Amino acid sequence: MPDPVGVQIVDVTKSFGDTTVLAGITLDIAAGSVTAILGPSGCGKSTLLRILAGFEDPDAGTVRIAGSTVADRTGTVPAHRRRVGLMPQEGALFPHQDVAGNISFGLGRMAPAQRAAEVAHWLDVVGLQGFADARPHQLSGGQQQRVALARALAARPRVLLLDEPFASLDTGLRVRVREDITAILRKSGTTAILVTHDQAEALSLADQVAVLLDGRIAQYGAPVDLYRRPASLGVARFVGSTIEIDGQAEGGVVTSPVGTHPAAGAVPDGPVTVVIRPEQATCGPGAGDAANAVVIGHRFYGPQTVVRVRLVDGTAMELQEAGHSTTAVGESVRVQLHGKVLAFPQT
Ligand code: ADP
Ligand code: MG
């Protein structure tokens, strides 16, 4: 049986003045899943979340949450009656209230003893036992985000929306905090929608990723499928690094200056842009006929070196080598591709 639908978005459009931000968004989000909406800055991610939360009305289209319609052409259900939580970019804790006060915010009316028990429960869920009396400024950025999450979850939303929740954290902290928070979301079984412009974040955290480009969902799928089988060159570029060279497709096989390789997915015969993921390409010694490139430069980054080569047809290409490169500038080398290659028709 398919998972019950947590959120259903059907043909939602939204313009501000003459600018169409959402040009028809259709998306089914399974209950209990963690879904990422990935798109560049300014593509309408926050607008879509605000429509789901009820802070903004769509121009057209339908939104259903856990089976009930909250927006369609007949009207909208106000935000406070949707049971949708929104966790903003900066945790936005109340600075003059302690952690318990912040978490209590979402609890509504209840007896003091029950309130204390609820606060203790959510502190336990987010791993901050003993912090009830702390003030936000006494906490690290990661701890503040966990309090914000506890506050959002305490209101028991049917759907929790997270708007770039890790963007304000330092790089070192970000990976830890986002893994902690996703683990908590999974454990709590909450339907969560996270928006981000960070492809690594979307791919590593979410069960499903919707790529939002030019006002539309360019592709919706599991992270590994988006990465290996992007539906367009735009998606391929947005979900990972690409090395792009010209090639020719014929009968599902692609020929380029680095050889002949099976295409990943169907591609019509004719000129194509061959898209290579950095981890697919290696460069090793090659003399005489085996050589297909010359090394023209190196950039050392510590764990890896970017090796710049010029292919026989004159195309420059950058490859990654683990650690320090064993090649020298001016050396003839052989570039090899592993696995199937992505290819998109050139128009
Ligand atoms: P993202 O969250 O993906 O960065 P937003 O949803 O915040 O993008 O914004 C998408 C576009 O809509 C931007 O060009 C932004 O300037 C515009 N926009 C957002 N909200 C409003 C508004 N209330 N009035 C006018 N323009 C808006
Ligand atoms: Mg935004």
Automatic annotation (TrEMBL):
GO terms for molecular function: ABC-type quaternary ammonium compound transporting activity; ATP binding; ATP hydrolysis activity. PROSITE patterns: ABC_TRANSPORTER_1, ABC_TRANSPORTER_2. One of its GO terms (cellular component) is ATP-binding cassette (ABC) transporter complex. Its EC number is 7.6.2.9. Residues 7-239 form the ABC transporter domain. Keywords: ATP-binding, Nucleotide-binding, Transport. It holds the Pfam family TOBE_2. InterPro entries: AAA+_ATPase, ABC_SmlMolc_Importer, ABC_transporter-like_ATP-bd, ABC_transporter-like_CS, Mo/tungstate-bd_C_term_dom, P-loop_NTPase, Transp-assoc_OB_typ2. Gene3D superfamilies: P-loop containing nucleotide triphosphate hydrolases (3.40.50.300). This is ABC-type quaternary amine transporter. The lineage of its organism: Bacteria, Bacillati, Actinomycetota, Actinomycetes, Mycobacteriales.
